[in-house]
Amino acid sequence: MLHEDTETLRAAVAADRIDEAAITAATNDEARELNALIRENRVRAGLVDDARTVEGSDGLSIGRGDLIQTRRNDSEAGVTNRHTWIVQQVGRDGDLWVRDTASDRKQQRTVRLPVEYVAEHAHLAYAATAYGVQGLTAPESHTILSDALSAAGVYVGLTRGRETNRLHVVAADLGDAREQFTASLERDRAERGLVEATQRAQVAVSGLTDDGPVQEVNAERARLSKQIEKAERLAARWEQAAAAFTDLAKRHKAEEDEQTTILATVENEAQRVRAEVFGPLVVQAVDDGTAVVTAQSRLWQASRAKDAARGFRKRSAARALYAATRERETVEMTARRRWGSIPAAATSVEPWAESVTSREADAHPRVIEQRQLVDAARKAQRELTAQHMEERRRLIHDVFGDLRLGNPREYAATWRQHAERRTPHPRHHRGPARH
């Protein structure tokens, strides 16, 4: 798509973007400008809450409804580098509760990102560099061509969309856009062989001579025959490449689904075990906390009764105070020995109970064992993702070589059409030119 200037281009991309679209920019600064513009549109549309926000590593605000990307592995938070999330809530302290965009289970995974992590390792992800969108598959893609975008970046951007892939260029006309696109290929040293080969071919062709009609016809026949053979050979090659990519994608999908099922199973089991351990503990803690505040209340009442006692009632009031004191000491000692602390007041019994039992539950051997199984499953999933990326990279290199651009199916169709259209039609010799 052609645009008059950079501002018009960015506005068009921001307006045309659909949910889950991949937008590729050449630099982090370009991605930041696009992220800011897209976020403004979403705030105006009511899709993002701008009332309570926190600042990400790119300096832009993040609110409920925003799409963000984490840029550092953190096993405690359960996040990985270049993973994307939807913000569900912004806490008063700046922590984010985010939902995994990759999960398609009914109960999608939600994690908490501390405000410190967000400030250093999370940012808006509506647009990203080629590195940021590698491995991503989206309904559609938008790639912004600029002087800083190389052939590899163009390839990455133009292969993210399942249905649509658009290239956006600031250009006066198609000729200008074509020149910019060609220049982007030449900027990447890996693609210099194409330019050099073209130049050598032009030099070779310029040296041909025409010695007569028979030689011209024979040369034309030979040339067209070679073109047909080349087209058929290339068509077969690209058809095989397309089949290889399809087979690889199917295998990857099956392996990813299997690993996702394994992870979901161990996560659900871990939640079940923790709830099973946590339930009885919190009941016991509430009972112990209630006993503490009840004993404290009785001691206070006994103390007031002793102060108010007169005559023969003083002795019985003193005995009651002593008994209340011993009771308070006993229940407090029991609670401290069991939980490490006691509630401060009657209104804080339940929060206190949840806090102390949460620590106890997390330290329980069964809970630790399940947590280790979850960590192992997540590690296996990350390793599988890395393995798939490497396998795809190797296949891309085997198919394209150093030139990482294009679609094997499109190449196959193009060269098959060339082969079908190319039939030798020798030119008629018109005789010598008149002087």
Give the topology, please.
Elements: E1 2-3, H1 6-16, E2 22-25, H2 28-44, E3 54-55, E4 61-62, E5 67-70, E6 83-90, E7 96-100, E8 110-113, H3 115-121, E9 122-124, E10 128-129, H4 130-133, E11 138-144, H5 151-158, E12 161-170, H6 174-187, H7 192-206, H8 213-308, H9 313-339, H10 349-362, H11 365-400, H12 408-421
Parallel strand pairs: 1-12, 2-10, 2-11, 11-12
Antiparallel strand pairs: 3-4, 5-6, 5-9, 6-7, 7-8
Helix pairs in contact: 1-2, 8-9, 8-10, 8-11, 8-12
Q: How would you describe this protein?
A:
The chain is of the alpha/beta class. Helix content is 60%, strand content 12%. It contains 12 helices and 12 strands. It has helices at 6-16, 28-44, 115-121, 130-133, 151-158, 174-187, 192-206, 213-308, 313-339, 349-362, 365-400, 408-421; strands at 2-3, 22-25, 54-55, 61-62, 67-70, 83-90, 96-100, 110-113, 122-124, 128-129, 138-144, 161-170. It has a 5-stranded parallel sheet with strand order 1-12-11-2-10, sandwiched between helices. Strands 8-7-6-5-9 form a 5-stranded antiparallel sheet.
How would you summarize this macromolecular structure in one to three sentences?
With 435 residues, the protein is of the alpha/beta class. It has helices at residues 6-16, 28-44, 115-121, 130-133, 151-158, 174-187, 192-206, 213-308, 313-339, 349-362, 365-400, 408-421; strands spanning 2-3, 22-25, 54-55, 61-62, 67-70, 83-90, 96-100, 110-113, 122-124, 128-129, 138-144, 161-170. The longest helix has 96 residues, at 213-308.
